[in-house]
Design goal:
Layout (H helix, E strand, L loop, with lengths): L2 E6 L23 H9 L7 E7 L5 H9 L3 E5 L4 H11 L4 E4 L9 H13 L5 E3 L13 E4 H10 L3 H5 L3 H4 L7 E3 L18 H14 L8 H10 L19 H14 L3 H14 L1
Length: about 280
């Protein structure tokens, strides 16, 4: 059985372009993507790591990083990320795909192996992850997908968000796929903490985390990150206004979420007007 980490990476991210090429620690010569890859390598189960990027010239830099870190790469569609995963897995004869995104530079090999281990306990599962019920901090998520399930998803998922976000079709159809969720142990159970990279505020928090921990231990654990954020809770205010982007919304949910974001940014009147106009126009 071949178990491979496939992580998507591109420079044209909408909220924070070229975020995976930003330096961490700040003003170091190490990119976020390199930190991600090095932390993935701590997994005891992974047979290989594949960086799934796009065919765009702008992403040549991502390929160079993959080569520098001595991991494989695959180039495919920019928008159809599902097809990128499927063909990367197919080309490399992967039986079990592990998915961690390239904007999570606090990912922990122990958590990766925890989720893979849960899959290996019951290989009849199609999908095992930490995201069906979120109990880990944002940025420590891991998904494990059986190749046959990924193939079926590639063939059947047709909505644009299902092609962009890879696994949505799987957990939207529990009647088709056998799903399993992994709950966080007490030491990890802080789902409101956020250590991912979507905004500049997120980057500032991650710089603070790396400033504190990286110089002591270059492979600091997720548990150490959590302890730091609990010991110095004011750090969490740095990215408090960062909102986790959902994979998909129906119109009603999108408008309500938009109103909540406006309110969070201090634009209470605009939030109230948006909700009022929406309710009046229904």
């Amino acid at each position: 059985m071949k178990i491979a980490m496939i992580t998507q990476a591109r420079t044209s991210s909408t909220r924070l372009p070229s975020k995976v090429l930003m330096h961490l620690p700040y003003k170091s010569n190490i990119t976020v993507l390199e930190q991600d890859i090095r932390r993935m390598k701590e997994s005891k189960y992974l047979n290989e790591i594949i960086i799934a990027t796009t065919n765009k010239v702008e992403d040549d830099e991502i390929v160079k990083i993959a080569q520098k870190e001595k991991v494989k790469f695959f180039r495919g569609s920019e928008e159809d990320v599902l097809s990128r995963y499927y063909f990367a897995a197919k080309e490399n004869l992967v039986d079990v795909i592990v998915r961690v995104t390239s904007d999570c530079p606090c990912i922990d090999g122990e958590i990766i192996d925890l989720v893979i281990g849960e899959y290996l306990k019951d290989e009849s599962c199609d999908y095992v992850s930490t995201v069906l019920e979120r109990t880990f901090p944002i940025g420590l998520d891991v998904e494990v997908i059986k190749f046959s399930a990924l193939k079926k998803t590639y063939e059947e998922a047709y909505k644009s968000y299902q092609r962009e976000h890879v696994t949505d079709y799987i957990y939207e159809n529990p009647q088709i796929y056998k799903l399993k969720n992994v709950l966080a142990a007490t030491k990890y159970r802080y789902p409101r903490l956020r250590v991912t990279l979507d905004t500049m505020d997120d980057y500032m928090l991650l710089c603070a985390v790396y400033d504190e921990l990286y110089k002591v231990n270059r492979n600091f654990s997720a548990e150490e990150v959590i302890k730091l954020l609990l010991k110095k809770p004011w750090l969490n205010y740095i990215n408090k206004a960062s909102v986790q982007k959902k994979d998909s919304y129906d119109l009603n949910s999108e408008i309500i979420e938009g109103a909540n974001i406006l309110k969070l940014q201090g634009m209470k009147r605009a939030s109230e007007i948006l909700l009022k106009q929406y309710k009046g126009g229904k």
